[in-house]
UniProtKB/TrEMBL annotation:
It comes from the Bacteria. Keywords: Membrane, Transmembrane, Transmembrane helix. The chain crosses the membrane at residues 7-30, 50-70, 77-97, 103-120, 166-187. This is MFS transporter.
Amino acid sequence: MDKLKFYFIQGISIFLGFTFWGAGMAKLFYEHQFFGWIGPVWLIEELAAYGLGLYGVFIAYSQIIIGYLMVTTRYKLLGSIMMIPLIGNILMVTISLNWKGTPIVLGFLMLLNLFILWQYKDYFRPLIDESTVSHSVKERAVRTTSAHLVWLAGLSLQIISIQISYINWIMACSVVIVGLFLSYLSFRIDKKSVITPKLEDTINQ
């Protein structure tokens, strides 16, 4: 049951991550040629008419970074926290521009995001109490510095791919895939870094 719940949460994280990461990439890719199901891809152009083009670019990059935190599932807690103001900002834009239907979709996505945050409720008590942990916190997988850096390299490739899309779309998509592969590889690096010392300790004993 716990494993089923784990995969369910991972699935929600990937869905939310792909939704916003894809939306941000589609806004910035050359001629908006990127995969995604939520829009509009022309938000920057729409906001530029009101002198808010830079704000539109800010939203796009925020979607990419926050979405990527979640689509790779490595930092889904951090991504879920950052997702709240992101959805809030987008919601205010859509309401201000009188877009129909979009606020309902965003409301549904917010509910999914809150569900993920609820799974990490044991982390929030110290923030509320403004004190050290006074209750049990669930043990979670160990993360290593080297794996963090590998994941960050994957994110960097996403940003680089945007500029490459203006030169060659296929090459840009290839860079995106390589970046995703690196970020998912970070989990294997974590496991290898944790298991190897244990084996060495056993041998030394």
